[in-house]
Design goal:
The protein has three helices and eight strands. By secondary structure, it is of the alpha+beta class.
């Protein structure tokens, strides 16, 4: 009685927002904004600002934005990995294989969105759930919440 403590591993969920885009001239862009990690070590740099990890864009390869456990995402430069896979596979297969690589290589958890230079979008995750949305060629927005 009289003492109040916090539960050391209790934290409120934080959200990451990512976006990828392809304009009419064929320019690709990617951005990632993070909600942060609870109780992180002072000075820790997450995956969002690391080029190739949290986001990556190259007009010849594709654009991607990732979210999940930052340390794992940085180890496999997940967004760059997806863009590399775009040159070898369909967009959905590339995203699936990038997430499988994250899981098999470093036991990582995450999700990724991407678009290849042809305008084919990609999405995959190995987390319990992940929301994503996209606009089709007619400007219609399709939003989904996917669970594993």
């Amino acid at each position: 009685p009289g003492f109040r403590t916090h539960k050391p591993f209790e934290f409120e969920p934080r959200d990451t927002v990512g976006a990828v885009a392809l304009d009419q001239k064929g320019n690709l862009a990617a951005a990632t904004s993070t909600g942060g990690t609870a109780r992180k070590m002072v000075g820790r740099v997450g995956d969002s600002p690391v080029v190739g990890a949290g986001a990556y864009a190259d007009n010849y390869a594709g654009a991607a934005s990732a979210t999940g456990w930052g340390e794992s995402i940085m180890k496999v430069v997940l967004s760059k990995t997806l863009c590399d896979f775009f040159g070898q596979k369909t967009a959905p297969d590339a995203a699936r294989d990038a997430i499988q690589y994250l899981e098999k290589r470093v036991n990582g958890l995450g999700g990724i969105i991407g678009i290849n230079p042809k305008g084919d979008y990609a999405f995959a995750h190995n987390t319990p759930k992940m929301a994503h949305a996209f606009a089709d060629d007619n400007g219609q927005v399709i939003a989904r919440l996917r669970a594993q």
